Amino acid sequence: MSSSQRCRLAGVLCVVRIAAMQIRSIVIPLLKWFSENSRDLPWRKTIDPYAIWVSEIMLQQTQVKTVIPYWERWMKQFPNIISLANAQEEDIIKLWEGLGYYSRVRNMHKAARNIVTKHNERFPCDLEHVLPLPGVGRYTGGAICSIAYNQPEPIVDGNVIRVLTRLLGIEESSKSKSVIDFLWSVADDLVKHAISLQKPMQRNASSFNQAMMELGALVCIPKNPLCNHCPLKERCIARKEKKVEMIPVVPKRASLTKRRFVGFVICWRNKMFVSRRPNSVVNAGFWEFPNWEVATKVEAVTIAEANLSLSQAELKPLCVINHSITRYRNRLEIFLIKASRKPHLANLSGKWLSESEVKELPLTSAHRKVLNKLIF
Ligand code: SF4
User: Which of 36, 170, 248, 253 has the most crowded Cβ, counting Cβ within 10 A?
Assistant: First the structure.
Protein backbone atom coordinates (compact mmCIF):
# COMPACT_ATOMS: atom_id res chain seq x y z
CA MET A 1 0.00 0.00 0.00
CA SER A 2 1.39 3.43 -0.97
CA SER A 3 1.70 6.26 1.62
CA SER A 4 -1.17 8.21 -0.01
CA GLN A 5 -3.39 5.12 0.16
CA ARG A 6 -2.42 4.71 3.82
CA CYS A 7 -3.38 8.35 4.57
CA ARG A 8 -6.70 7.94 2.82
CA LEU A 9 -7.42 4.74 4.71
CA ALA A 10 -6.47 6.37 8.03
CA GLY A 11 -8.88 9.23 7.26
CA VAL A 12 -11.68 6.90 6.27
CA LEU A 13 -11.18 4.77 9.36
CA CYS A 14 -11.20 7.88 11.53
CA VAL A 15 -14.67 8.80 10.21
CA VAL A 16 -15.75 5.18 10.54
CA ARG A 17 -14.41 5.05 14.11
CA ILE A 18 -16.90 7.76 15.07
CA ALA A 19 -19.70 5.77 13.43
CA ALA A 20 -18.49 2.69 15.31
CA MET A 21 -19.00 4.47 18.63
CA GLN A 22 -22.58 5.16 17.58
CA ILE A 23 -23.38 1.61 16.59
CA ARG A 24 -23.44 0.44 20.18
CA SER A 25 -27.13 1.20 19.75
CA ILE A 26 -27.43 -1.96 17.59
CA VAL A 27 -26.91 -4.23 20.60
CA ILE A 28 -30.39 -4.18 22.12
CA PRO A 29 -32.42 -4.47 18.87
CA LEU A 30 -30.07 -7.18 17.62
CA LEU A 31 -30.41 -9.22 20.84
CA LYS A 32 -34.19 -8.89 20.64
CA TRP A 33 -34.23 -9.93 16.99
CA PHE A 34 -32.03 -12.97 17.78
CA SER A 35 -34.28 -14.09 20.64
CA GLU A 36 -37.22 -14.11 18.22
CA ASN A 37 -35.59 -15.31 15.01
CA SER A 38 -32.63 -17.59 15.74
CA ARG A 39 -32.60 -20.98 14.04
CA ASP A 40 -33.11 -24.08 16.11
CA LEU A 41 -29.66 -25.64 15.59
CA PRO A 42 -28.64 -28.71 17.59
CA TRP A 43 -25.44 -27.18 19.00
CA ARG A 44 -27.48 -24.27 20.33
CA LYS A 45 -29.12 -26.60 22.83
CA THR A 46 -25.89 -27.05 24.78
CA ILE A 47 -23.20 -24.99 26.44
CA ASP A 48 -20.75 -27.91 26.50
CA PRO A 49 -17.50 -26.34 25.18
CA TYR A 50 -16.54 -29.64 23.50
CA ALA A 51 -19.80 -29.78 21.51
CA ILE A 52 -19.50 -26.10 20.57
CA TRP A 53 -15.88 -26.56 19.52
CA VAL A 54 -16.87 -29.49 17.26
CA SER A 55 -19.63 -27.40 15.65
CA GLU A 56 -17.35 -24.40 15.12
CA ILE A 57 -14.63 -26.49 13.48
CA MET A 58 -17.17 -28.22 11.23
CA LEU A 59 -18.76 -24.90 10.27
CA GLN A 60 -15.46 -23.50 8.96
CA GLN A 61 -15.90 -23.32 5.16
CA THR A 62 -19.03 -25.49 5.37
CA GLN A 63 -22.74 -24.70 5.30
CA VAL A 64 -24.98 -25.20 8.33
CA LYS A 65 -27.32 -27.66 6.59
CA THR A 66 -24.36 -29.85 5.61
CA VAL A 67 -22.90 -29.75 9.11
CA ILE A 68 -26.04 -30.75 11.07
CA PRO A 69 -26.02 -34.52 10.27
CA TYR A 70 -22.22 -34.70 10.61
CA TRP A 71 -22.35 -33.00 14.02
CA GLU A 72 -25.13 -35.33 15.22
CA ARG A 73 -23.25 -38.46 14.08
CA TRP A 74 -20.03 -37.15 15.59
CA MET A 75 -21.58 -36.41 19.00
CA LYS A 76 -23.06 -39.92 19.10
CA GLN A 77 -19.77 -41.61 18.28
CA PHE A 78 -17.43 -39.25 20.17
CA PRO A 79 -19.57 -37.58 22.85
CA ASN A 80 -16.66 -36.09 24.80
CA ILE A 81 -12.98 -35.19 24.76
CA ILE A 82 -11.82 -38.53 26.13
CA SER A 83 -13.64 -40.57 23.48
CA LEU A 84 -12.11 -38.40 20.75
CA ALA A 85 -8.62 -38.55 22.26
CA ASN A 86 -8.84 -42.36 22.37
CA ALA A 87 -10.21 -42.73 18.82
CA GLN A 88 -8.28 -44.30 15.94
CA GLU A 89 -7.33 -41.79 13.23
CA GLU A 90 -8.95 -43.98 10.55
CA ASP A 91 -12.31 -43.81 12.41
CA ILE A 92 -12.34 -40.04 12.81
CA ILE A 93 -11.34 -39.50 9.17
CA LYS A 94 -14.09 -41.87 8.06
CA LEU A 95 -16.66 -39.94 10.09
CA TRP A 96 -15.45 -36.65 8.59
CA GLU A 97 -15.52 -37.99 5.02
CA GLY A 98 -17.31 -35.57 2.69
CA LEU A 99 -16.79 -32.46 4.85
CA GLY A 100 -13.43 -31.65 3.21
CA TYR A 101 -10.52 -29.60 4.60
CA TYR A 102 -9.33 -32.66 6.47
CA SER A 103 -6.56 -30.91 8.38
CA ARG A 104 -9.44 -29.69 10.59
CA VAL A 105 -10.20 -33.15 11.89
CA ARG A 106 -6.55 -34.09 12.38
CA ASN A 107 -6.04 -30.93 14.41
CA MET A 108 -9.11 -31.76 16.51
CA HIS A 109 -7.67 -35.17 17.25
CA LYS A 110 -4.34 -33.62 18.32
CA ALA A 111 -6.15 -30.98 20.38
CA ALA A 112 -8.24 -33.62 22.18
CA ARG A 113 -5.08 -35.55 23.13
CA ASN A 114 -3.47 -32.32 24.22
CA ILE A 115 -6.48 -31.48 26.46
CA VAL A 116 -6.38 -34.95 28.03
CA THR A 117 -2.68 -34.75 28.85
CA LYS A 118 -2.22 -31.04 29.61
CA HIS A 119 -5.63 -29.92 30.87
CA ASN A 120 -6.68 -32.88 32.97
CA GLU A 121 -9.35 -33.97 30.43
CA ARG A 122 -11.22 -30.64 30.81
CA PHE A 123 -11.76 -28.21 27.97
CA PRO A 124 -9.77 -25.04 28.83
CA CYS A 125 -12.01 -22.23 29.98
CA ASP A 126 -10.25 -19.04 28.87
CA LEU A 127 -8.98 -17.66 25.60
CA GLU A 128 -5.36 -17.80 26.72
CA HIS A 129 -5.54 -21.60 27.01
CA VAL A 130 -8.00 -22.22 24.17
CA LEU A 131 -5.97 -20.37 21.51
CA PRO A 132 -2.87 -22.63 21.61
CA LEU A 133 -4.97 -25.72 20.75
CA PRO A 134 -4.17 -27.03 17.25
CA GLY A 135 -6.60 -25.67 14.65
CA VAL A 136 -8.03 -22.96 16.92
CA GLY A 137 -7.60 -19.40 15.67
CA ARG A 138 -8.83 -16.10 16.99
CA TYR A 139 -12.35 -16.58 15.58
CA THR A 140 -12.84 -20.14 16.89
CA GLY A 141 -11.31 -19.29 20.27
CA GLY A 142 -13.65 -16.30 20.61
CA ALA A 143 -16.65 -18.38 19.55
CA ILE A 144 -15.94 -21.12 22.12
CA CYS A 145 -15.28 -18.71 24.98
CA SER A 146 -18.28 -16.50 24.25
CA ILE A 147 -20.83 -19.21 23.40
CA ALA A 148 -19.84 -21.84 25.97
CA TYR A 149 -18.68 -19.59 28.82
CA ASN A 150 -20.45 -16.30 27.98
CA GLN A 151 -17.13 -14.45 28.11
CA PRO A 152 -17.01 -11.07 26.30
CA GLU A 153 -14.60 -12.24 23.59
CA PRO A 154 -15.21 -10.87 20.09
CA ILE A 155 -15.61 -12.88 16.91
CA VAL A 156 -15.14 -11.75 13.33
CA ASP A 157 -16.00 -14.15 10.51
CA GLY A 158 -17.31 -13.60 6.97
CA ASN A 159 -20.85 -12.88 8.19
CA VAL A 160 -19.70 -10.40 10.84
CA ILE A 161 -17.41 -8.66 8.32
CA ARG A 162 -20.35 -8.21 5.95
CA VAL A 163 -22.71 -6.86 8.62
CA LEU A 164 -20.19 -4.46 10.18
CA THR A 165 -18.75 -3.10 6.92
CA ARG A 166 -22.29 -2.36 5.72
CA LEU A 167 -23.44 -0.87 8.99
CA LEU A 168 -20.38 1.37 9.09
CA GLY A 169 -20.25 2.05 5.35
CA ILE A 170 -16.65 0.89 4.99
CA GLU A 171 -15.65 1.25 1.34
CA GLU A 172 -12.07 0.00 1.73
CA SER A 173 -11.08 -3.58 0.94
CA SER A 174 -12.60 -5.87 3.57
CA LYS A 175 -9.49 -8.05 3.26
CA SER A 176 -7.00 -5.33 4.23
CA LYS A 177 -5.25 -5.80 7.55
CA SER A 178 -6.18 -2.33 8.82
CA VAL A 179 -9.90 -2.90 8.11
CA ILE A 180 -9.85 -6.38 9.69
CA ASP A 181 -8.01 -5.08 12.78
CA PHE A 182 -10.52 -2.28 13.02
CA LEU A 183 -13.50 -4.66 12.76
CA TRP A 184 -12.02 -6.80 15.56
CA SER A 185 -11.81 -3.69 17.74
CA VAL A 186 -15.44 -2.78 16.93
CA ALA A 187 -16.61 -6.35 17.63
CA ASP A 188 -14.67 -6.29 20.90
CA ASP A 189 -16.31 -3.05 21.97
CA LEU A 190 -19.79 -4.31 21.00
CA VAL A 191 -19.58 -7.61 22.86
CA LYS A 192 -18.28 -5.86 25.98
CA HIS A 193 -21.12 -3.37 25.69
CA ALA A 194 -23.57 -6.28 25.31
CA ILE A 195 -22.36 -7.88 28.52
CA SER A 196 -22.54 -4.55 30.36
CA LEU A 197 -26.29 -4.55 29.58
CA GLN A 198 -26.79 -8.12 30.76
CA LYS A 199 -29.62 -8.85 33.21
CA PRO A 200 -29.94 -11.95 35.44
CA MET A 201 -30.52 -15.17 33.45
CA GLN A 202 -29.21 -13.58 30.25
CA ARG A 203 -26.07 -14.64 28.37
CA ASN A 204 -25.44 -11.53 26.34
CA ALA A 205 -21.91 -12.24 25.07
CA SER A 206 -23.03 -15.58 23.69
CA SER A 207 -26.28 -14.21 22.26
CA PHE A 208 -24.75 -11.08 20.77
CA ASN A 209 -21.97 -12.91 18.91
CA GLN A 210 -24.38 -15.50 17.60
CA ALA A 211 -26.85 -12.76 16.64
CA MET A 212 -24.26 -10.98 14.50
CA MET A 213 -23.49 -14.20 12.63
CA GLU A 214 -27.16 -15.10 12.36
CA LEU A 215 -28.05 -11.70 10.90
CA GLY A 216 -25.29 -12.17 8.31
CA ALA A 217 -26.52 -15.67 7.49
CA LEU A 218 -30.26 -14.91 7.27
CA VAL A 219 -30.79 -11.20 6.54
CA CYS A 220 -27.60 -9.35 5.64
CA ILE A 221 -26.77 -11.94 3.00
CA PRO A 222 -24.16 -11.33 0.28
CA LYS A 223 -26.57 -10.68 -2.61
CA ASN A 224 -29.93 -8.90 -2.26
CA PRO A 225 -29.89 -8.53 1.54
CA LEU A 226 -33.33 -8.34 3.15
CA CYS A 227 -32.90 -4.77 4.40
CA ASN A 228 -36.63 -4.23 4.84
CA HIS A 229 -36.66 -7.03 7.44
CA CYS A 230 -33.43 -5.97 9.13
CA PRO A 231 -33.67 -4.89 12.78
CA LEU A 232 -30.74 -2.51 12.15
CA LYS A 233 -31.96 -0.86 8.98
CA GLU A 234 -32.32 2.61 10.56
CA ARG A 235 -28.70 2.50 11.72
CA CYS A 236 -27.11 1.19 8.51
CA ILE A 237 -24.89 3.57 6.54
CA ALA A 238 -24.67 1.35 3.44
CA ARG A 239 -28.46 1.25 3.23
CA LYS A 240 -28.81 5.00 3.77
CA GLU A 241 -26.23 5.73 1.08
CA LYS A 242 -27.59 3.05 -1.29
CA LYS A 243 -24.25 1.23 -1.32
CA VAL A 244 -25.41 -2.13 0.00
CA GLU A 245 -24.45 -4.02 -3.17
CA MET A 246 -20.97 -2.42 -3.22
CA ILE A 247 -20.07 -3.31 0.38
CA PRO A 248 -18.12 -5.23 1.52
CA VAL A 249 -15.45 -4.39 -1.03
CA VAL A 250 -13.73 -7.64 -1.96
CA PRO A 251 -10.63 -7.71 -4.17
CA LYS A 252 -10.92 -9.91 -7.26
CA ARG A 253 -10.05 -13.54 -6.62
CA ALA A 254 -7.09 -15.15 -8.34
CA SER A 255 -8.37 -17.24 -11.23
CA LEU A 256 -8.73 -20.99 -10.79
CA THR A 257 -5.88 -23.23 -11.84
CA LYS A 258 -6.85 -26.27 -13.91
CA ARG A 259 -5.25 -29.63 -13.11
CA ARG A 260 -5.71 -32.95 -14.87
CA PHE A 261 -5.37 -36.38 -13.25
CA VAL A 262 -5.57 -39.83 -14.82
CA GLY A 263 -6.52 -42.73 -12.55
CA PHE A 264 -7.25 -46.45 -12.80
CA VAL A 265 -9.63 -48.82 -11.11
CA ILE A 266 -7.66 -52.04 -11.42
CA CYS A 267 -9.81 -55.14 -10.83
CA TRP A 268 -8.55 -58.66 -10.41
CA ARG A 269 -10.59 -61.61 -9.06
CA ASN A 270 -13.38 -59.42 -7.55
CA LYS A 271 -10.86 -57.21 -5.80
CA MET A 272 -9.62 -53.75 -6.59
CA PHE A 273 -6.36 -52.00 -5.83
CA VAL A 274 -6.37 -48.96 -3.54
CA SER A 275 -3.62 -46.89 -1.90
CA ARG A 276 -3.53 -44.80 1.26
CA ARG A 277 -2.40 -41.20 0.81
CA PRO A 278 0.83 -40.60 2.75
CA ASN A 279 0.96 -38.41 5.85
CA SER A 280 2.80 -35.50 4.25
CA VAL A 281 0.24 -34.68 1.52
CA VAL A 282 -3.22 -33.10 1.22
CA ASN A 283 -5.98 -35.53 2.29
CA ALA A 284 -3.42 -37.63 4.17
CA GLY A 285 -4.85 -40.90 5.48
CA PHE A 286 -7.58 -41.13 2.84
CA TRP A 287 -7.66 -44.00 0.37
CA GLU A 288 -7.92 -43.69 -3.39
CA PHE A 289 -7.50 -45.46 -6.70
CA PRO A 290 -4.02 -45.08 -8.22
CA ASN A 291 -3.82 -41.81 -10.14
CA TRP A 292 -1.25 -39.39 -11.52
CA GLU A 293 -1.30 -35.68 -12.35
CA VAL A 294 -0.48 -35.29 -16.04
CA ALA A 295 -0.14 -32.62 -18.70
CA THR A 296 -3.12 -31.99 -20.98
CA LYS A 297 -1.95 -33.99 -23.95
CA VAL A 298 -0.59 -37.08 -22.25
CA GLU A 299 -2.61 -40.23 -23.12
CA ALA A 300 -3.90 -42.48 -20.33
CA VAL A 301 -2.23 -45.46 -21.98
CA THR A 302 1.17 -43.79 -21.62
CA ILE A 303 0.57 -43.43 -17.87
CA ALA A 304 -0.66 -47.01 -17.59
CA GLU A 305 2.33 -48.40 -19.45
CA ALA A 306 4.83 -46.34 -17.48
CA ASN A 307 3.38 -47.03 -14.03
CA LEU A 308 1.34 -50.22 -14.26
CA SER A 309 3.00 -52.18 -17.09
CA LEU A 310 -0.41 -52.50 -18.77
CA SER A 311 -1.22 -52.06 -22.45
CA GLN A 312 -3.95 -50.03 -24.20
CA ALA A 313 -6.13 -53.06 -24.88
CA GLU A 314 -6.84 -53.39 -21.16
CA LEU A 315 -8.15 -49.82 -20.58
CA LYS A 316 -11.82 -48.89 -20.62
CA PRO A 317 -12.97 -45.30 -19.88
CA LEU A 318 -15.14 -45.34 -16.74
CA CYS A 319 -15.93 -41.73 -15.80
CA VAL A 320 -14.68 -38.17 -15.49
CA ILE A 321 -15.01 -36.41 -12.12
CA ASN A 322 -14.66 -32.64 -12.02
CA HIS A 323 -14.10 -31.15 -8.60
CA SER A 324 -12.65 -28.01 -7.05
CA ILE A 325 -10.31 -27.76 -4.10
CA THR A 326 -9.44 -24.24 -2.90
CA ARG A 327 -8.16 -22.50 -6.07
CA TYR A 328 -7.73 -25.67 -8.11
CA ARG A 329 -10.23 -27.04 -10.60
CA ASN A 330 -9.38 -30.71 -10.96
CA ARG A 331 -10.40 -33.09 -13.72
CA LEU A 332 -10.03 -36.76 -12.82
CA GLU A 333 -10.28 -39.18 -15.76
CA ILE A 334 -10.81 -42.73 -14.58
CA PHE A 335 -10.21 -45.90 -16.59
CA LEU A 336 -11.28 -49.41 -15.68
CA ILE A 337 -8.86 -52.29 -16.02
CA LYS A 338 -10.14 -55.84 -15.63
CA ALA A 339 -7.02 -57.94 -15.39
CA SER A 340 -7.04 -61.68 -16.05
CA ARG A 341 -3.64 -62.12 -14.36
CA LYS A 342 -2.54 -60.37 -11.17
CA PRO A 343 -0.97 -57.09 -12.34
CA HIS A 344 2.60 -56.38 -11.36
CA LEU A 345 2.37 -53.14 -9.38
CA ALA A 346 5.91 -53.06 -8.06
CA ASN A 347 6.05 -49.25 -7.77
CA LEU A 348 2.81 -48.87 -5.87
CA SER A 349 2.03 -49.53 -2.25
CA GLY A 350 -1.55 -50.45 -1.46
CA LYS A 351 -4.02 -53.27 -0.93
CA TRP A 352 -6.25 -55.56 -2.98
CA LEU A 353 -9.71 -55.28 -1.38
CA SER A 354 -13.26 -56.32 -2.17
CA GLU A 355 -15.84 -53.72 -3.12
CA SER A 356 -17.47 -53.90 0.33
CA GLU A 357 -14.09 -53.45 2.04
CA VAL A 358 -13.28 -50.39 -0.11
CA LYS A 359 -16.70 -48.97 0.72
CA GLU A 360 -15.79 -48.97 4.43
CA LEU A 361 -12.55 -47.01 3.93
CA PRO A 362 -12.33 -43.24 4.19
CA LEU A 363 -12.21 -42.12 0.54
CA THR A 364 -11.77 -38.59 -0.80
CA SER A 365 -15.07 -37.34 -2.24
CA ALA A 366 -13.82 -37.60 -5.86
CA HIS A 367 -12.84 -41.26 -5.36
CA ARG A 368 -16.09 -42.00 -3.47
CA LYS A 369 -17.88 -40.83 -6.63
CA VAL A 370 -15.72 -43.18 -8.70
CA LEU A 371 -16.65 -46.08 -6.41
CA ASN A 372 -20.34 -45.19 -6.71
CA LYS A 373 -20.04 -45.35 -10.50
CA LEU A 374 -18.78 -48.89 -10.13
CA ILE A 375 -21.54 -49.96 -7.76
CA PHE A 376 -24.58 -48.44 -9.43
S1 SF4 B 1 -29.90 -2.73 6.52
FE2 SF4 B 1 -29.39 -4.18 4.95
S3 SF4 B 1 -27.22 -3.90 4.55
FE4 SF4 B 1 -27.67 -2.88 6.48
S5 SF4 B 1 -27.19 -4.39 8.04
FE6 SF4 B 1 -29.36 -4.61 7.59
S7 SF4 B 1 -29.47 -6.16 5.97
FE8 SF4 B 1 -27.37 -5.47 6.10
Answer: 170
Residue 248 falls inside a structural domain: no
Both 229 and 265 in one domain: the answer is no
pTM: 0.82
Q: Which of 111, 135, 110 is nearest to 124 (CA)?
A: 111
**CB of 310 closer than 6 A to ligand 1?**
no
Write the DSSP assignment of 75-113 as a string of letters: HHH--SHHHHHTS-HHHHHHHHTTS--THHHHHHHHHHH
Domain identity same for 186 and 48: yes
* Span from the CA of 229 to the centroid of ligand 1 (angstroms): 9
Minimum-distance ligand 1 atom for the alpha carbon of 215: 7
pLDDT tens digits, residue range 41-95? 999 999 999 999 999 999 998 999 999 999 999 999 999 999 999 999 989 999 9
90 and 225 both lie in a single domain: yes
Domain that holds residue 21: 3-240
